[in-house]
Every structure is written in C-alpha cells, then in structure tokens.
C-alpha cells in the first residue's frame, strides 16, 4: 500500500472522526485539526505519521527477537485483534485483560498449565471417570481459562511491544507495560491521554474499519520483522572464515626473494638415511 493509498483508506474508514468536543482530552490538542459541528476532527497527517513510526518500531523489535502483544477487548476491536495477531503469529488479548498478565506473569503461566491439564483429561478420556457434577465444574473452568488466556498461551516471555486499541479501556494493560519498560503503541481517540503512551496513533478507536486497518498495518510490520529475524539467523549460522594470526599473515605476505637462501650440503637423501643408520 502506497502512502496515498493509505491516506485514502484511512479517510474512507472514518479514522479522522474524533469524539464530541465536550469529551476531549486537552493533551490531544496537537493531533486535532479542527471541529465539524460538535465533533473533533483528527489531523490525518498525524495519524499517518504515527502509523509509520509504529511500523518501524515493531519491525525493529521483532527483528531483534522480541514479540508483539495485541490488546483490544472492546466489541469493535476483538475480531481484528484476533485475526491480525494470528496472521502475523503474535500474541493477543481480546476478551478480558486479567490484572497481572504482565507484572505477575508467573501466575498466568500456572493458569495456562492448569488449562493444559484440563484439556488432557478430555484428550485421554480420563474425564469419564469423574462424576457429572465434577465434569461440569471442570468444563466451566477450562472454558473460562481458555477464553481469557487462549491468545497468550504460547507467550513464554514478556513482549517487547504492546499494541493497544482504546487507551482508556485498556489502562491496566498500559500501566503494567510501563512498569516493566515494555514499549506501548496505541490507537488513541480524542478522549485519551497520549502522555501515557510511548507512540500514539491518533484516530477513531470506535470504527471497526479504522481499527482493522491500523491493526493490519502493525501486523504487516511484525511479518516484515520476522523476515529480518530469519535473515539474521541465517547470517549468524553461516561458517565464518578462519582467522589467520598477524604473524602468519606477515610470513605469507613476504616475497620469496626476501627468504634467506639455504645451501644443500647433502643433496643425496639416501646418503643421509644411511648415515643415520
């Protein structure tokens, strides 16, 4: 997608429509172009600038071996978050952000182990040995854990970047990321606080098409970063040429004329062998 095509797609998706002026956050003033009626209009140039910077950040982080966590639990964002995170092979939270998902990651891993135990009961058929009441209880527990943690069950380390849709709704996720020094990117509307985000992307965070478009751009950057990661791995695995010491190099570079001439005092090798015997 070219720059002009991106701008046209963003405008068509309605990303420039903000919230009513009565609900705005004064810190979003640099990103607002004006008003239409009682609705703030977001400066599309700032949106494009935020997307390009975010893509560069994500690409660099993924190429360096770190992962991206997509977060969007509002109804308008769930489908796009899940689809794009799966497309680029990254992690996501689309149902509910559990407090301590990042700051208490060890406990989250324990819950995921519990999910694996419950799933194993059904896979092996061992669940049939339980009573109907216990079977129902265990099934509800499994469904609950799976709905909340399915998107991060393969996340074995803290991500390098977190992408958030709607800063006000996901303020707990943003707070945990900042505590751990995880870089934050967010699609933020005119009622959000950009000072809480490392890299804000000003735009309508209620329009499904706008959310899907921005999320797809972040996913594309993650895919490009993975390709760079693969190239780096190949380069690291290539055999390196054997280093020669400076002394050997010096001898190898010397011209043959510089070598001292030696006189062959015993030109017949057979006489030498006989003498030694």
Question: How is this structure best described in words?
Answer:
A hairpin with a 2-residue loop joins strand 2 (32-36) and strand 3 (39-42). The model is unreliable at 234-277 (pLDDT under 50). The strands form 2 sheets. The protein has a 5-stranded parallel beta sheet, with helices on both faces. The protein has a 3-stranded antiparallel beta sheet with strand order 1-3-2. The protein has helices spanning 3-12, 44-63, 75-88, 105-124, 132-149, 171-180, 208-237, 246-253, 269-276, and strands at residues 17-20, 32-36, 39-42, 68-71, 91-93, 161-165, 183-188, 199-202. The termini are far apart. Helix content is 50%, strand content 13%. With 277 residues, it is α/β, with parallel strands linked by helices.
How would you sum up this structure in a few lines?
By secondary structure, the protein is α/β, with parallel strands linked by helices.
Trace the largest sheet across and list its strands.
Answer: 5-4-6-7-8
Helical content class: 40-55%
Count of discrete alpha- or pi-helical segments spanning 4 or more residues? 9
The first-to-last residue Cα distance is: 86 Å
Low-confidence stretches: 234-277
Total beta strands? 8
Strand content: 5-15%
Order of helices and strands: HEEEHEHEHHEHEEHHH
In quaternary terms, these chains amount to single chain
What is the average per-residue confidence, as pLDDT, rounded to a whole number? 85
Q: What structural class is derived from the secondary structure elements? A: alpha/beta
Alpha carbon gyration radius: 31 Å
Q: Give the biggest beta sheet.
A: 5 strands, parallel
Categorize the overall geometry: elongated
